[in-house]
Amino acid sequence: MTILVTGASGQLGRLVVDDLLARGVAAADIVATARNTDSLADLAALGVMVRRADYTDPASLRVALEGVDSLLLVSSSEIGQRAVQHANVVDAAVAARVSLIAYTSIANAPTSTLSLAAEHLETEKAIEASGLPSVILRNGWYLENYTGQLPTYLEYGVAGAAGDGQVSAATRADFAAAAAAVLSTEGHEGKAFDLGGAPFTLSDLAAEVSRQSGKTVTYTNLPEADYAALLVGAGLPEVYAEMYADSDRGIARGDLLVEGNDLEDVAAYVAAYAGVPGAKPPKAPGVGPGAQVYANNGCGSCHTFAAAESAGQLGPNLDDVIPAMSQAEIKESIIDPNAQKAKGYENQVMPDRFDSIPPDQLNQLIEFLTKYAAGSKSGS
């Protein structure tokens, strides 16, 4: 099966290719595209097929999609041009008779009032009208939209127009992992996934930056127009300032709130990405050092486990499966995921990169899982 990832020179597309490779997909089965293939030279050196594809050049898209089975359409960055550009890709996919098209949309696209959502929804409708088997990945807000501003937060505080609204932000790496899972496993056709991390307000964000840095950081809520003017004054082009201000307005009304799908806890990301002197590792939910191992390795991104307060749904519910497993079976399922495959799950749903967990941490993780799994005889 050949998988094509568009925009592979961009931040999200590149992470998807990396994740596919990490999941064991052969480099020769991956096609990475970009407007300028020179930017993909390192992937070509790994054996990944590299092809030119320009969303504004239908001929290049038709050539790029030749022989492709599954396609990930990573949304264009050209706001206002996306619908037309995406339609070009969908038309080429129809001509190539791809067996699956996955698209990176936006959270709550059918009901969202965000200015960004209109082009995403139009693309979703174009994909539906194409008749191609499809999967819609409705990604929430990038956490990097906030972590990239940490120096500003530390100097001036957090400003916005989101009020007390919650945003389900997650890292690009999380969204890339979800896309790679969909592309490399079966049974997702016809589904739309709303993806997002643990919800937080901008006041929560300010409080967490304060906690991690040791410096008092507060959130100032502004009217939408005033926030846009503030961003323009800081040097942001007006079109982007208005977009971010509009997005905050949408956050205030819940447009970027994704319920029931915690990819990670915001505190973990602030600690991991802040680069703040003196930042401390996040305190994991649960009890004991095994809970920290669970959090540090992102287990909650894919699994539900009550003791860790995680609700991931890509993999099996650990509260259901752990009580029936021995410690040896649990260990084998972590270091060799396909050896202990849960019923109803395909091979390679879980990456095989956790065999590098140090033995003492692996034992702590197993102890945590067996002791606190719901229904476990050793739990209390």
Point out poorly predicted stretches.
261-286, 376-380
The H-level CATH homologous superfamily of the domain at 3-142 and 169-195, spelled out, is NAD(P)-binding Rossmann-like Domain
Mind telling me the C-alpha Rg? 21 Å
Distance between the termini: 47 Å
Layout of SSEs?
Elements: E1 3-5, H1 11-22, E2 30-34, H2 41-45, E3 49-52, H3 58-64, E4 70-73, H4 82-96, E5 100-106, H5 117-130, E6 134-139, H6 144-147, H7 150-156, E7 158-160, H8 172-184, E8 191-195, H9 202-213, E9 219-221, H10 224-233, H11 238-252, H12 266-273, H13 289-296, E10 304-305, E11 310-311, H14 318-321, H15 327-335, H16 359-372
Parallel strand pairs: 1-2, 1-4, 2-3, 4-5, 5-6, 6-8, 7-9
Antiparallel strand pairs: 10-11
Helix pairs in contact: 1-8, 3-4, 4-5, 9-12, 10-11, 13-16
Can you put this structure into words, describing what you see?
- The chain is α/β, with parallel strands linked by helices.
- Among the domains are: 3-142 and 169-195, NAD(P)-binding Rossmann-like Domain (Rossmann fold, 3-Layer(aba) Sandwich); 284-372, Cytochrome c-like domain (Cytochrome Bc1 Complex, Chain D, domain 2, Orthogonal Bundle), CATH 1.10.760.10.
- 41% of the residues lie in helices and 12% in strands.
- The chain is built from 16 helices and eleven strands.
- The chain has helices at 11-22, 41-45, 58-64, 82-96, 117-130, 144-147, 150-156, 172-184, 202-213, 224-233, 238-252, 266-273, 289-296, 318-321, 327-335, 359-372, and strands spanning 3-5, 30-34, 49-52, 70-73, 100-106, 134-139, 158-160, 191-195, 219-221, 304-305, 310-311.
- The protein has a seven-stranded parallel beta sheet with strand order 3-2-1-4-5-6-8, sandwiched between helices.
- Helix 9 (202-213) crosses helix 12 (266-273), helix 10 runs antiparallel to helix 11 (238-252) and helix 13 (289-296) crosses helix 16.
- The longest helix is centred in the N-terminal third of the chain and has 15 residues, at 82-96.
- The protein is globular.
- The chain starts with a strand and ends in an 8-residue tail after the last helix.
- The model is unreliable at 261-286 and 376-380 (pLDDT under 50).
